Amino acid sequence: MVFDRTKRTLRAGLVAGxxxxxxxxxxxxxxxxxxxxxxxxxxLADLSRRSEQTNEALHNAVxxxxxxxxxxxxxxxxxxxxxxxxxxxxxxxxxxxxxxxxLAAANYRGARTNRLYSVLVSDSPQQLLDQMSALGVIAQxxxxxxxxxxxxxxxxxxxxxxxxxxxxAARVAAEQAQTLRDDLERQQTDLRNQIEGVYDAxxxxxxxxxxxxxxxxxxxxxxxxxxxxxxAPGTGSAALRAAMTRIGDPYVWGATGPDxxxxxxxxxxxxxxxxxxxxxxxxxxAQGGTPVSRDQLQPGDLVIFYDDASHVGMYAGDxxxxxxxxxxxxxxxxxxxxxxxxxxxxx
Length: 347
Hints:
Blueprint: H1 4-21, H2 32-35, H3 39-109, H4 115-121, H5 125-203, H6 207-214, H7 224-228, H8 235-244, H9 263-272, H10 282-285, E1 290-291, E2 302-305, E3 311-317, E4 320-323, E5 332-335, E6 341-346
Antiparallel strand pairs: 1-6, 2-3, 2-6, 3-4, 4-5
Helix pairs in contact: 1-3, 3-5, 4-5, 8-9
């Protein structure tokens, strides 16, 4: 959804990008309505912007859902382990229980197992010694059994408490995952509806309007050779070289290549070619890597745009980015000033 307070700014940025791509000049401060080539292009730009926001939010929701599903699996694994420990602890309690039950029954019936009692009932010194020795062994064994039962009982209580905590954690994780699944389904429905609107608006454009929308692959006076000739060795430069091979490929929501892309999908694909895995959404890409200030940008750095970090391109040098911008516009190199700057990251 485009927020009311930013709607005019977003629309102006998209239309300005279309005009810049076509080689037109856009004043620094202008009335969006005065600069739109046609109302149809303005309408399409608005719909496309909304769909891109939803598309990137959808990628982010998938990331969140995967994290919650991992948390749920971890919680389930802890629960299973804790239940195993609880079963072992209960088995240990059961091992001591017959002895403890017998001792309790003997005490109830008035059994005497102390040494004073052996003195009273002994007929001779030897019998006294024999009885006291036997009572000592019995007392020690009884004490050992009582202690073993106490330890096992405490362990069972602790295991039961841990199992209960794990069960609560597993339940919460499952509920959170289900909430995210429901939200994901809603966003998928929203995106499908928005894409239908974009298709419908695009189909109503004239050929000239579609040409204006698509623009040119490079800004005036710039080409791929000029960009690549300035690159120094490095991971970022290698990723940029990969991205430059996709110039002209179409924008498709949710695509990560090899011949169609959305904005964050192009970044994922390009860095995958040099052995690096990037997060799937523009918002997640804006949180990874290393922060880079605008005046320290290097080729291959990711440049994120808009307040909600819903668009991303790759810095190509001289204030330009290569990006998959929107439906109807092939992957291209464009001035980064065409969009409101958010942040930059180096991977």
